[in-house]
Amino acid sequence: MRDKLNDLASAAAEIATADASRLAELKVSLLGRKAGKLTELLRELPTLSHEERRTLGAQANELKKKIEADIDERERTLATPSGAGADVDGSMPGRQAWRGALHPVTLVVDEICEIFRELGFSRVTGPEAETEEYNFTKLNISLDHPAADAQDTFYVGQGTLLRTHTSPMQARVMETNKPPIRVVVPGQVYRRDAFDPSHSPVFEQLEGLAVDEGLSFVDFKAAIDYFVKRFFTRDTVVRFEPSFFPFVEPGAQVQVQCVMCRGSGCSTCKQSGFLEIMGAGMVHPEVFTRCGLDAERYTGYAFGMGPQRIAMLRYRIPDIRLFFEGDMRFLGQFT
Ligand code: PHE
Fold this sequence. Notes:
By secondary structure, the protein is of the alpha+beta class.
């Protein structure tokens, strides 16, 4: 019995250097409830003489406590990282994960399309490289119009160019769809402008087109009024001024009460109290004819706005170039 105790004590000495799997083995072979060596030894105690039981029993219990304590300690040591990772502070907060987000102009485009969706408009897109025919001719813009000049337009080849507005999609949609038509067309357009706080050679436009029997200027005003009040605030005043575009008649310019000064006059609205947000009008009969629709039967309205400009008004952004710089300090504010 005494020898067995000594054997056990030396076996237990291995605990201090055992790795995790060896430690698990030792735990079973020493303390296991069925076949653990120490357990067996303790079971033998009742067979011993009174005297032996007292001394050996005490020693055996002592050894059991020590083995349990040693195993505990070894387990703790193995669970604690050592070496290179020993100075890791497990309580330190993790690094913040980068989350992707939509660009503010995308957010505004999506919101505008959503508002028009409520009015029954579908969202479609079209080509950025266009022909002179769709960009100008079908829209009743003759090729000697200043807009068609190479000074203002990026030509990419004979008769092809980067679209200068999203209006060519009016023609494409009218040629391929039967009225009633209701579409909005967001997309990039190109003009030979220099980069400055309010101009960029490439910018976003959003075209709208509705064609049906019996549509009038009243339907147009109601749709735009609904949009402005949903997008800005319900009390925003909307104003329509006569304007000219070859593909609409009558043509209009839509203005909203200045979001900065609420109409009292400031530098943003050049003291007028109003800001122009889109060009628009009733589809010109000549455009219907050139696109194969019966100008006697159908009427319609069209509008074109600049989502960047609208985003600048909404978020009070002073310079359009901020949209193109990819500066996370700027972009991070719109998530
Ligand atoms: N295409 C015009 C522009 O780029 C805007 C517009 C669209 C005007 C539709 C009238 C109707 O300025």
